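The authors assume throughout that readers already know how a fold can be written as discrete tokens. For illustration, here is how one protein appears when written out as sequence plus structure tokens:
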Amino acid sequence: MKEKTNWGGQEYELEWINSIETASKNITQIYGFLFTSDNKLCIVNPKRSWRLPGGGIEKGEDWKQALIREADEEADIELYEDSIKLIGQIKVTPLSKNCTKKEHYLLRAVGKIKNIKEQTIDIAEGIINERKFIAPEEFLKYCKWGKIGEVQLKKALEFLSRLSNSNSLA
């Protein structure tokens, strides 16, 4: 599925890719659909707008380490490491002629929250982020991600169902 969007005054084409086997070397970010034991979805608001916890992958990190770190820094949550699974990726192609960004990929994962901690200052933002735990059906009300968002949420809920039926979580 493909969709056009405008972000920061630039136009992009977004393409949802179910497979994670064909990911480009140019992966810039990882964001997670992270669920509590009662299947509430964690979202954060670092100044601009509501979104999933996540962010950039730092040098020396793999995608899973980056998601674990970002979830802790932004939302003050700990994850069950064995619950974290990739669900797909978004290929981002700049369409604006004056855009300095290159084609890149954003990974999406799903996981279960092990512990919700008292909130602290997000070192990247210098503030305590707003954090909510919402019913999954409320996601698109907070995160206006269009059709691509609908596809991601559907995929995340499919994986959540598998995780919930797994015996690997306490």
